[in-house]
């Protein structure tokens, strides 16, 4: 089997480092988002406001679909942010 179609060890290592850096940044941003949502949650509880606003969530996701200029499909954007919203809710209510 020929290995000429496979990236070199240096290329593979550099690519993995880049992915790791992106993952670290994503993790930092996710934790920051969770902190902000927790603050919002406390405010809503104190103010007697509904904790979930489905119209806001749908609007936010659709705005992100429209703003996406990358290669992630509209379905991918929707799925990612829908899962993110579910995860954040689980974290808020489970903490």
UniProtKB/TrEMBL annotation:
Pfam family, one: CM_2
SUPFAM superfamilies: Chorismate mutase II
Molecular-function annotations in GO: chorismate mutase activity
Keyword terms, alphabetized: Isomerase
Keyword Isomerase part of the UniProt annotation: yes
Any single GO BP term: salicylic acid biosynthetic process
Gene3D superfamilies: Chorismate mutase (1.20.59.10)
PANTHER family xref list: CHORISMATE MUTASE (PTHR38041)
Full protein name: Unannotated protein
